[in-house]
Amino acid sequence: MSAEVFYDDDADLALIQGKKVAVLGYGSQGHAHSLSLRDSGVDVAVGLQEGSKSRPKAEEAGLKVLTPAAAAEWADVIMILVPDTVQAKLYADEIAPNLSAGNSLFFGHGFNIRYDLIQAPADVNVAMVAPKGPGHMVRRQFVDGKGVPALVAVEQDPSGDTQAVALSYAKAIGGTRAGVLKTTFKEETETDLFGEQAVLCGGAAELIKAGFETLVEAGYAPEAAYFECLHELKLIVDMIYEGGIANMWYSVSDTAEYGGLTRGPRVVNADTKAEMKRILTEIQDGTFAKEWVAESEKRENYKKLQQEQADHQIEETGKKMRDLMPWVQREITETA
Ligand SMILES: NC(=O)C1=CN([C@@H]2O[C@H](COP(=O)(O)OP(=O)(O)OC[C@H]3O[C@@H](n4cnc5c(N)ncnc54)[C@H](OP(=O)(O)O)[C@@H]3O)[C@@H](O)[C@H]2O)C=CC1
Ligand SMILES: CC[C@](O)(C(C)=O)C(=O)O
Ligand SMILES: [Mg+2]
Ligand SMILES: [Mg+2]
Prior knowledge:
Layout: E1 5-6, H1 13-17, E2 20-24, H2 28-39, E3 43-47, H3 55-60, E4 64-66, H4 68-74, E5 77-80, H5 84-95, E6 104-107, H6 111-114, E7 125-131, H7 135-143, E8 150-156, H8 162-172, H9 175-178, E9 180-182, H10 185-200, H11 202-217, H12 222-251, H13 254-267, H14 270-284, H15 287-298, H16 300-310, H17 313-324
Parallel strand pairs: 2-3, 2-5, 3-4, 5-6, 6-7, 8-9
Antiparallel strand pairs: 1-9, 7-8
Helix pairs in contact: 2-7, 4-5, 10-11, 10-14, 11-12
The site of one magnesium ion has 2 residues, from helix 10.
């Protein structure tokens, strides 16, 4: 069944303009939401701990900054945009004691509700507004008069208008300019985790590195391998993004098309798909969530893996190559 899609005309901005909104966290998503809500005429407070590194940034942007507890107490709508693994403790310590009947608890990702790490009281609305893109892109698109598509979901609706308020919030951060799809916490969480693990982040990074290593181990120059396996990938992905996979096949040479059609399935094959299914099962049965919550305490394996990625030869080659092509470099910056 196709998802329902909402655009600007389906959302009433006045609903969120009539609420006090606390955005807890001022990181990738938090800065984008709070600045765009403010620019859309919403009364916003950012919730950050007293010693938070993000405080100066939020204050310099002219935002009202309170502690998470004070922001939760002040607000009608509390959007939780701190890392997934700290949300349950923040909820227990600072949000739950300050919730009143009729308040709304919003999320940018369904992890803590899907895996029962947070259980809100029955008289509190629970919804999700999840932009389908990194926070800095969410803000950049909003400033440019555009938007990143988003998902909305409602888990609890004692007030009866939670979907309308969530759509209003999505409009205030630019989501309805691009289109907002209706989903559930379960569907958003499971598909988001699967996408980032198997395809977008994990799958793509391993595909790039395996291709690079194959060429370098065969004696080809790392610079040539970088061009073929990483740099040109953006140009190919842009074509797929703009017009689908068929658009890419249409545009590349027939040599590339025939070679890709015959060799691609040997790289991503039945074994790959079987592994993808195992990854999806670990997401669905909670194995991954349990592992990640336990790992997030000390992060020993996580830090080791991060270091291995940073030390890979492709990063050194890539830095050298990008220095020769300053036009491809774009720092992740905050758009005021
Ligand atoms: N990154 C993205 O683009 C996307 C994220 N999401 C979801 O959005 C949510 C936020 O993710 P993201 O923006 O990446 O998060 P970030 O890692 O960027 O959040 C960092 C912010 O959270 C604050 N913070 C960390 N711990 C606490 C705490 N215990 N109490 C209060 N504030 C705290 C940090 O403060 P300090 O500076 O002091 O450390 C900082 O302001 C997650 O649910 C994520 O899954 C959804 C779609 C995309
Ligand atoms: C693809 C990664 C993501 O799910 C996202 C930006 O959508 C995330 O969790 O950061
Ligand atoms: Mg995602
Ligand atoms: Mg994600």
